[in-house]
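Many introductory courses stop at the sequence. We go one step further.
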Amino acid sequence: MADTLQTIKCPACGKEMEKVFIPNEGINLDICTQGCGGIFFDNRELEKFDEKDEDISKILEKVEGKNFINVSENAVRICPSCGQKMVKNHSSIHNDIEVDECYACGGKFLDRDELVKIRTEYDTEEARSEDVIKEMYKTVGRELAEQDRRYAEIKSDRSLLRMLITKMMGG
């Protein structure tokens, strides 16, 4: 979904989120400056801020020195943009940081300080992608090896069965 100028409510604490214009990206981010400190990213906005070399100074200025309320990270969250239930996913294959994601509109909600943590996971998008590919090959490789093992067992069982049938038939 496209960036909107409408005020939205925080999916974690229900407070009104503040629109923060990020000039170098030309977008408005929704930050819960009066509640829990969470950030809502419309579809594809997070990728503009998730690497170390990307500027998050405007975001940090808005949350610096503020005391935020604590919220349950396990509570069901409803997307403030489209009203659909958000799904808990991880920011990377390491499964360290949980992100609330809306499958309907592509929005993502990060709890306080999660953006800073995500930025420490990888130096570049290429490194993140390489890690995903390595993990996929490990998983697919294990599955293929298991299939090969099962095929060998079936083949061995068939050979044994043929031998038994042959002996029973007097051959």
